[in-house]
Amino acid sequence: MTSMFDQFEQSVKPKSSSELTNLGYIDMALENDTPIFTKSKKDFSPSEKITHVAIANKYMVIAMANNLLFRMNLHNPSERSEISLAKFTQNKLTNIFLDPTGNHLLLTFASKTKPHEALELMYLSRKSDKVKLCNKLRGNEFTAVAWNHLNELDSTTGPILLGTSKGLIFETEISLEGDKFFGPSLEQYWKQLPNYLPLYGNKEIEGLVFDIGKNTNTPISALEYFQVNRTNKYMIFAATPSRLYYFCGTVEHDDKPVLQHVFHKYLNVPETETFLATESRLTYSKLQFWSENLITPNTFTWITEKGIHFGRIDALKDNKMSSIKENTTLLEYPKPLYEDYSQSPKYPASVAMTEFHVLLGYSDGIKGMCLLSKEVVYEDQYNEAFGKLVSVIRDPRTGEIWAMSENAMFRFKVHKEERNIWQIFCAQNQFDLAKKYSKGNEACYNQVLIKEADMLFEQKKYVLSAQRYAETQFSFEEICLKFLQVGEPDALKIFLRNKLSNLEPKHKAQITMIVIWVVELYLTKLEQIRLQGLEKSASYDEVQKEFETFIALQEVADCIKSNKSTIYELMQSHGDKGNLIKMTIVNKDFERLIRHHIFKNNFREALEVLKSQNNLEFYYQFAPVLMQEVPKHMVKTLIEQGKKLSPLRLLPALVACDGELHSLEVIKYLEFCIKKLKTTDKAIHNFLISLYAKFDSGKLMEYLKSEGQEQSLVNYDVYFALRLCAEQNQTEACVKLFSLLGLWESAVDLAIDVDLGLAKQMADLSPEDDLELRKKLWLKIVKYVVSDKNDIQEAMKYLSDLIKIEDILPFFPDFVTIDHFKDAICNSLREYNQKIQGLKEEMEEATKSAEQVRDEIQSFRNCYTHINTLDKCEICNMTLMVRPFYFFPCSHMFHSDCLLAELDSSLGLVKKSRLTELENQLQSLSLHSNLDAVSTGSSGITAREQIKAEIDNIIASECLYCGENMIRNIDKPFIEDYEYENVTRDWQ
């Protein structure tokens, strides 16, 4: 049978193509057989043999043997052009230089018969077909160009460096805007040689910023410069056949030439401190950089006769050549394509560098080599059909690699070149890099972690080793035994904890065993410290905090909850009562702990435990006991819980409290519920009123006032409160409650016995629209003032529009003289006289208005108008007199049936039903003609006439167009909702 931990290894084993054994062996056949470099031929056939080629930013420039310059956009091959160089010069093309954007091209020429004479430099813009001569640079053989990698403009090159065959370095800038040196559309700055630079032939050389050759024919094979992370720091590299120069400096201002400032400090520095030297009989060397961000280089390769110099660059720290030398190694060239010892050795003529590999271009083929392992990973031969290899090129912007032979064009694809790099870094103990490049392959990543953990274990860095082992899939038992054998329980504990964090919830058996083991290790450590008498030391606190953090983890807490008895036994065996109590918190076993404290009369401790847990049911369960024993602290705890607790469910515990001390604390909590929690439960409010009535009458009145005077809006039972207040002799509160119930007479009667001012207040609060009640209430107050207090002068103050002198006279005793209220009687008589006079004036105005109305009615009866035979109905536009009609004073005329049809929609249901009833009556009269002759009432009007008059009153009470009905229906739509769709369809 397999052990539990064997099963554990199988359950967490990663899904990969390799099988991991307990010994950590991994089958390394993880990748498919796809080569790192694959080549594909492109459909491109030059008209002549290719002599020179440059590719940048997917833009290709080719020079052919027939002196034609061919340009093509590789992204859009239809965008191409050919330029005949014979139109611009008779000299021979020696080299071409294309900037990283593909916008700027420099061409160098020399005499066909005398190569070192008639030297020319010409410029060609991508958006132009005209090659322009650089007159100021005539006579120099330029062999290298350092372009500005940050320049994105197609109108200027930005600051650039030019290297010559004599070791001179010039700085200039070529621009299509302006005319200064190169013709009608070119401009470049060209500064005079500083006085501290050497003179050549007693003549200062314009634009020269540094001299490497020192009057020797030392050609500059490669030249590059970089601005470090867009700061003012610059790095300049210059390569000759046998030396690699490095210049580094800052530029504090933008004065041109810019890069000349970098060279200033090297004028007085020993030359040996600026270069890396090697022996070489070659007339050239190749330099190429690889950059992760295409701006600042990370690594470089320098190809010389001795081999491949591979170095790493830290742009922020490398300020001297010595630091670059320390990170540079020399790699031997791979063996030739064909072993032919009779021939001299061959050296690469071109190079293309990737992050970890380099492609070396020979005249008859290409070799690919890993820069880290020195292993040859690619070999290719070019036959006569393709011609000799012209160059291997890497696009500086896109990273694409191209190979150009004399007659063909090829593109290389790079397939996961980092696939086995992790092995190299791992063998070199560079584990961070090894993990970085093995991250995608879980089996490889596991092997790196195992080797790193083994190395840390051998170095006795057990804690770090445990952390690494926990990340691996190495044998669980073997790792545990390793730490037990060396006596490192702390490292074992870290390993187990980290291993636990990687387990899934379904691995319950493994989780349980690891949790119990870790708990045992912590308890053992704590016991050892306690036995040493260091229970209050910092080390004990640190271990205790770690232990508490561990048992607070969710998966640990769940495991302990399922194995409480085992954990409790462990703690008891180690005598750890403190953690035993805390473990109940982890297990949420608070009820037993609270009961334990209450049983021992440790009520404050019980309350602390209650506060430390989140089960609100325990508050309701233990509130009765704790309110009796520690009321002040319990109320404070209840207030802290706020809305989490229901005051209604706590009410039984609060009601059970007896005595003033307990009641005052209960009042404090009830006030919190009402003011802060906005509780509206009547039970809470009624209970608070009962406590106020017993212990605090002042707060009782404040509460009643705060609740307002509207019975439907108060939150307490008014009748219950009135009974309580009556029992407790809270008279003022009873007055307030009587008024709330609308018992104003009872409120005033009770208030008069307590406070006359309160009685006045009640009378003022009575309904203003009930004058009889208000008068009655005020008369009660006046009667009390007159009869009981015998204060005649005070009684006179109550006289008003409501209370008259005649109302209070019956209250005065017989012996009171008229002098006390003479003024009041006179004022009352004057008021009556004014009212009588006002009534007379109103009667006169009413009489005049009645006469005027009678005159208008009489004149209206005599009015008449003329109806013409040509008059038409306003609705149907037909002759008016052909049917019964109505004529209105506003001159509008309608047929009676037309008017009735128009008014049908606007008449209410009552009028419609009445109109129908009248029409039926009229029809009935027509059938019984004898009934029509009977007059109705004293006026002598027949029944038919009376019915017609009522119909006219309904239909013709007002003009259809001029009356109020038209105004009321002004917002009525012209088209009804049910007709809208049909009308819309007709219009369409």
The major sheet is characterized as: 4 strands, antiparallel
Oligomeric status: single chain
Task: State the helicity in percent bands.
Answer: 40-55%
Going across the biggest sheet, name each strand in turn.
Answer: 1-28-27-26
Low-confidence stretches: 1-31, 179-185, 191-204
Number of strands: 32
pLDDT averaged over residues? 81
- The amount of beta strand, in percent, is 15-25%
N- to C-terminal distance: 88 Å
Structure classification: alpha+beta
Can you offer a commentary on this structure?
- This protein is of the alpha+beta class and 988 residues long.
- Helix 4 (421-427) runs antiparallel to helix 5 and helix 25 runs parallel beside helix 27.
- Helices cover 42% and strands 17% of the residues.
- The chain has a four-stranded antiparallel beta sheet with strand order 1-28-27-26, with no helix packed on it. Strands 2-3-4-5 form a four-stranded antiparallel beta sheet, with no helix packed on it. Strands 6-7-8-9 form a four-stranded antiparallel beta sheet, with no helix packed on it.
- The longest helix is centred in the last third of the chain and has 40 residues, at 822-861.
- Strand 27 and strand 28 (409-414) form a beta hairpin.
- It has 36 helices and 32 strands.
